[in-house]
Structure to design on (381 residues):
């Protein structure tokens, strides 16, 4: 069974650190985008009649920037075209300032959305201003209270650390305020400076002060200890959940399973076919107006790449890579493919290997990219 990701590329403001595929919503053809997105789903799913959908995730951009009427039309179409099994996970990403009234929340509930992922990032209003966010800490409390009133229980909050102007004490305070809301799932990421962002340009002009690498490592360590102490186990490098609340959708990515990607700039991966849709809105809409799929590039993923990805992605999860699943999928053992790489990394205390599962150690989590690099087959002896 596959996952389905839908991209809504519109935002009401542009955050200074963000390089996602998104545009400022004002003046954009949002209504037509919804129509064409549903057409894309219809065209693509007709090509894969034997690929039932297990989870739906609507991300962005800012899906909650749609009006309730636009959201109602989108979700009506999604339910018709991507029917989910009973109680399957159906997630929408939201910004806190779109949940200050009940309107959208009621639309979500009416259409079977059962999980919210909310971009909070920080509880320090000065830091929020510095990174270009428009919500404030008090909005976060209102948003989650409203969501609970609407009946949502399965909710996640994103926090970012190593932000400009953020001290470790600020981050500690954000963790404490976050946990006071008592959600079953949190995700926390370190700021990454990406090209084509305001922060990247400021950095190049020597005008961006970021906390040091040591502070970043301390903050990550603090988050891991903090969530563990509050009963949220780490199940992936950046994700923490109460038992039973791990994201089913995201786990499908890390298990290297199939997913549909719909919308401008979305990526999909079906039967070894990796495809990438046009990113700019007009380029995405144009082929759909002619009843054609808006795919910009396709690549058949080689078995070697699939094996590399099975390792990188699997190692992101605390359960790690399952040797049995690997052998079943590829007809070869991890050692057949990667030689002594696992044993070498175990010796360097970056991996654990209990004979069945290969996983990152705590030390390995700090050096994830260095570990993943070792599984590039060109580099394996
Ligand atoms: S971080 Fe989210 S809200 Fe901010 S610009 Fe990027 S997609 Fe939009």
């Amino acid at each position: 069974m596959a996952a389905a990701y839908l991209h809504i590329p519109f935002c009401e403001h542009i955050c200074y650190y963000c390089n996602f595929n998104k545009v400022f919503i004002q003046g954009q053809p949002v209504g037509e985008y919804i129509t064409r997105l549903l057409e894309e789903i219809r065209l693509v799913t007709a090509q894969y009649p034997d690929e039932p959908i297990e989870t739906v995730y609507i991300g962005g951009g800012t899906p909650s920037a749609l009006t309730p009427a636009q959201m109602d039309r989108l979700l009506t179409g999604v339910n018709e075209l991507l029917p989910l099994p009973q109680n399957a996970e159906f997630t929408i990403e939201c910004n806190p300032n779109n949940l200050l009234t009940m309107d959208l929340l009621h639309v979500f509930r009416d259409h079977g959305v059962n999980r919210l992922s909310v971009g909070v990032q920080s509880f320090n209003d000065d830091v929020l201003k510095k990174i270009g966010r428009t919500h404030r800490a008090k909005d976060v409390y209102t948003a989650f209270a409203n969501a609970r009133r609407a009946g949502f229980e399965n909710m996640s909050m994103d926090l970012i650390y190593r932000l400009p102007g953020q001290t470790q004490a600020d981050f500690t305070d954000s963790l404490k305020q976050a946990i006071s809301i008592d959600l079953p799932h949190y995700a926390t990421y370190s700021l990454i400076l990406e090209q084509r962002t305001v922060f990247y340009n400021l950095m190049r002009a020597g005008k961006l002060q970021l906390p040091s690498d040591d502070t970043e490592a301390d903050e990550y360590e603090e988050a891991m200890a903090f969530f563990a102490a509050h009963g949220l186990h780490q199940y992936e490098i950046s994700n923490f959940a109460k038992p039973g609340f791990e994201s089913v959708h995201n786990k499908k990515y890390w298990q290297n399973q199939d997913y549909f990607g719909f919308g401008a700039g979305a990526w999909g991966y079906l039967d070894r076919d990796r495809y990438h849709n046009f990113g700019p809105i007009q380029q995405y809409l144009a082929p759909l107006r002619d009843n054609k799929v808006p795919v910009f590039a396709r690549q058949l993923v080689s078995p070697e790449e699939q094996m590399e990805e099975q390792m990188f992605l699997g190692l992101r999860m605390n359960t790690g890579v399952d040797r049995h699943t690997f052998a079943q999928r590829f007809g070869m053992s991890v050692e057949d493919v990667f030689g002594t790489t696992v044993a070498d990394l175990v010796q360097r205390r970056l991996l654990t290997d209990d004979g069945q599962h290969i996983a990152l150690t705590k030390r390995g989590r700090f050096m994830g990219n260095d570990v993943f690099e070792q599984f590039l087959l060109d580099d394996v002896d």
Notes: The CA atoms of residues 10 and 28 lie 8 Å apart. The pocket of iron/sulfur cluster is lined by residues 11, 14-15, 18, 20, 22, 60-62, 95, 119 (CB under 6 Å). The longest strand covers residues 53-60. The chain has a mean pLDDT of 96.
